[in-house]
Amino acid sequence: MKKYYLHKELTNFKINYEKELNPEQYAVVMHPAGPMLVLAGAGTGKTRTVTYRVARLIEAGIKPENILLLTFTSKAANEMMRRVDLLINRNVKGLWGGTFHHIGNMILRRHCLLIGYREGYSILDRGDSKDLFDICLSEFKNIGSFLPKGSVLCEIYSLMKNKEVSPEEVIRLRFPHFNDFSEEIKKILAIYDRKKHSLNLMDFDDLLANWKKLLLTHEDIRGYYSSRFTHILVDEYQDTNKIQAEIVDLISSTNRNLMAVGDDAQSIYSFRGANFENILKFPERYPDVTIFNLTVNYRSTPEILNLANNSIINNIKQFHKQLHSIKASGALPYLIPLKDVFQQSGFVAQKVVDIYSEGTPLSEISVLYRSHYQSMELQMELQRRGIPFEVRSGLKFFEQAHIKDVLSFLRVVVNPYDELSWKRILKLIPGIGNVTAAKLWDAMHKSESPLDAIFEMGRLVPRKAIDGFNLFLDLIKRLKGDHDHIPLQPSSAIELILRNGYEDYLYSYHPNAEERIEDIEQMKRFAIKYISLENFISELSLQSASGGEVEEADEDNERVILSTAHQAKGLEWNTVFLIGLNEGRFPSSRSLNTEHEEEERRLFYVAVTRAKEELYLCYPVISEDWHALGFLRPSRFIRELHGEVYEEITVVDGSKENEDINELY
DNA sequence: CTCAGCCTTCTTTTT
DNA sequence: GAAGGCTGAG
After folding, report:
1. Half-sphere exposure of residue A582, counting CA atoms within 13 Å on the CB side?
2. Are the C-beta atoms of residues A231 and A68 closer than 8 Å to each other?
3. pLDDT in tens, A29-84
4. Which distant-in-sequence residues (6+ apart) come within 8 Å of A269 by Cβ?
5. d(CA A123, CA A118)
6. Closest nt to residue A373, judged CA to C1'
7. Is A507 helix (H, G, I), strand (E, B) or coil?
8. Which residue is nearest to nucleotide B11 (CA to C1')?
9. If 0-12 CB within 10 Å is exposed, 13-18 middle and 19+ buried, where does residue A145 land?
10. More confident residue, A203 or A510
């Protein structure tokens, strides 16, 4: 792959589309205009096709700023833009590419005044929304009945926004337990809406809802963007939800050069409102659509693809299609029953060592699982053996407490109405807890400018906290930039926070202060790229990057990847281990209760089709943890497979190694 | 009344 | 391993 790009750089020839694409891909790339639906099975060169199409549009004279590329993750967007650059051998400027939320934010930053927001609104991430809901809940004060907590309210609200249905509908379908409380819940949701607005905050859902509102209520704006973007490409269309599909429809309404790419068999995000009927019904909404199928799989061996096909066939709701592998025949996928999770970890770790010593680089090996906690034992085992690995799931870098603390300092400077951030940083001061913080906010937010008012609040602070409070004021003063508007660089702002108290706070409260400081230093390095605080903050709130983008440079690093199946979408490895394939784990019991068996099977399909050469399916038989003591059944996704699509391996028990591991617990 | 620290609980998936 | 709830100390 690399060699090929290098060649291009040296020669600077025009792209030879016919030679570099297969006929199916070529047809997509060269199609003149109009609505297009591209059904691209796993491993059929979807990214390649999209990037070549963008490149061709640019070569054909379309200006980059007239192209909009919507993707599901920011990582995918960056990757595609990078590949477009490589293809046409220059740095393409002005091309808009990003997630729906990202693009929504870019547009709303420009026009938020029109829908009643002030400049510099803050973005709430999921945790912030939850906290805000808890605040609303406490304000609502209902005679201690069993109302849903912030996290549940958050979920209800989000589904309601993304699917554009009433709260009653969400409650009835997903939370029937609260059927009798829908009136109360609606009132709390209303408080939340009001609060968000007055605090100048938008949550993730608002970035979509307000975007749509802006387009609907301001014809001139809709006209501007829908004529500006003459070509719109949407990746992972099967994972769009109702509101996203509508935004796409609105913004492409003038030119109708809309290309939707996706695979209904890989729709795995219904829990956040994704509606894979969007892709199934696309032809109904665009009767003049041209439909393309990409059916040649370049990734997996016929054996792996065969297992995948054998599994997905059990789903009823799908476009029927058959993928063909063009790779040489390989080994059958292995099925490995194991005693327990410890033996499972031992097996995987040992296999990794074996495969590595046979010449497969570690970066070509991954271990996938349904949920994060299933990786814990394996992490310890890999650590113990000194096998380098990277975990791509669980706690996000920017969700860690210390990162959010620093971010909150920055946020109050940009948006002084940000109640959550104020309270968060106030509570860092020793001697100030929930109550004092609430008092302070209460007094502050009534004033014109909370950012100035805070300096008059000394009288509300308990005596023992006064020293800390003064230091805090000192820092805020510096962050404000003292005199007038010398715009503070994000990275120097972080430096200020660290050196003026936060470092000391970390040392006195956390034994691992050094690690946390190192994280913040990394955040600082990441911030150097940004000029304005506002951009930096919203970028960070939207960034899903675990570990930060800083690591991109050493992508070739030698390490095994541990990831949830969800996060593995779009990626591929030579060898893939799937662990914890048990009934109740994968499929997870919670999904089964809510009639999502087919979606779980699609997730299994996604996981399986990540493998290029070798696939190991592992399941433990005995559960030792408190969670589900006793025997575990193998997953239905295994039991329903034909016996001839895999080879079962028995692992001999009783090795000394396993006993050692058990002693650790 | 306020705060901090200990103890229990429970682990889906994410922009 | 982390977040929330409860209790005891100030």
Report:
1. 21
2. yes
3. 999 989 999 999 888 999 899 999 999 999 888 899 999 999 988 888 888 998 89
4. A239, A566
5. 13
6. B11
7. helix
8. A373
9. exposed
10. A203
Name the CA radius of gyration of chain A, rounded. Answer: 26
Secondary structure (DSSP) of A531-559:
S-HHHHHHHHHH---TT-GGGGGGTT---
**Separation between Cα atoms, residue A308 and residue A304, nearest integer Å:** 6
Q: Which protein residues, judged by their CB atom, are less than 7 Å from any atom of strand B?
A: A 72-74, 99-102, 125-126, 158, 204, 268-269, 271-272, 370-373, 393-394, 396, 430-436, 462, 542, 544, 564, 566-567, 588, 590-591, 594, 625-627
Minimum mean pLDDT range among A166-175, A317-326, A350-359: A317-326
Q: Which residue is nearest to nucleotide B2 (CA to C1')?
A: A435
Nucleotide closest to residue A564 (CA–C1'): B13
Q: Which nucleotides of B are covered by protein (CB under 7 A)?
A: 1-4, 10-15
Q: Return positions of chain C under 7 A from a protein CB.
A: 2-5
The pLDDT assigned to A484 comes to: 59
Residue A232: partners with Cβ closer than 8 Å, 6 or more residues away: A67, A68, A69, A70, A248, A251, A252, A255, A257, A258, A259
Q: Look up tokens 């870098």; give the residue.
A: A397
Q: Is the dihedral of CA A542, A76, A41, A364 positive or negative?
A: negative
Q: How far is the CA of A441 from the C1' of C2 (A)?
A: 27
Q: How many CB atoms lie within 10 A of CB A429?
A: 21
Rounded Cα distance, A329 and A207, in Å: 47
Closest nucleotide to A127, Cα to C1': C3
Say which nucleotide is closest to residue A396, CA to C1' distance.
Answer: B14
For position A395, what pLDDT does the model report? 62
CA of A426 to C1' of C7 (A): 25
Spatial distance from the CA of A461 to the C1' of C1 (Å): 34
What is the rounded distance in angstroms from the CA atom of residue A226 to the CA atom of residue A660?
64
Residue nearest to nucleotide B10 (CA to C1'): A627
Structure tokens at A235: 């990746």
d(CA A503, C1' C6) / Å? 31
Strands A258-262 and A573-578: unpaired
Cis ω for the linkage preceding A587 (within 30 of 0)? yes
CB atoms within 10 A of CB A25: 24
Interatomic distance A427 CA / C8 C1' (Å): 21
CA A256, chain centre distance (Å): 28
Longest CA–CA separation in chain A, Å: 77
